[in-house]
Task: inverse folding
């Protein structure tokens, strides 16, 4: 019985783990809108958007850079916008889907 070595993946998805983490936080965010924990949500969303934006630059997926910058600006905790209501709650879930799409599509060829 012969064993064959599995072929290594040709691409690596550096943005996948941070996007999954950001999406998990943003899916929970509507429940935290009126609590003190929402400041943490803002920090997590902003920092991970900037990290994923950097991975998009490295992978030369330029179309994700302005989207991630927009998320970082809208969710920034330093100069927060006074959004509220159902639209802001829905924006949390929409941003979670944006993070998932970015994590699934940003990939870079693996160095051999």
Result:
């Amino acid at each position: 019985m012969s064993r064959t070595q599995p072929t290594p993946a040709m691409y690596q998805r550096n943005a996948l783990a941070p996007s999954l983490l950001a999406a998990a936080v943003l899916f929970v965010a509507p429940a935290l809108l009126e609590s003190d924990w929402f400041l943490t949500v803002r920090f997590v969303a902003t920092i991970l958007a900037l990290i994923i934006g950097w991975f998009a630059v490295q992978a030369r997926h330029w179309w994700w850079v302005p989207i991630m910058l927009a998320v970082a600006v809208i969710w920034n905790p330093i100069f927060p916008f006074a959004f509220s209501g159902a639209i802001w709650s829905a924006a949390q879930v929409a941003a979670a889907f944006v993070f998932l799409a970015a994590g699934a599509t940003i990939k870079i060829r693996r160095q051999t």
About this structure: The first helix runs from residue 16 to 28. The chain is about 60% helix and 5% strand. The helical segments are 16-28, 38-58, 64-74, 85-105. The CA atoms of residues 56 and 74 lie 19 Å apart.
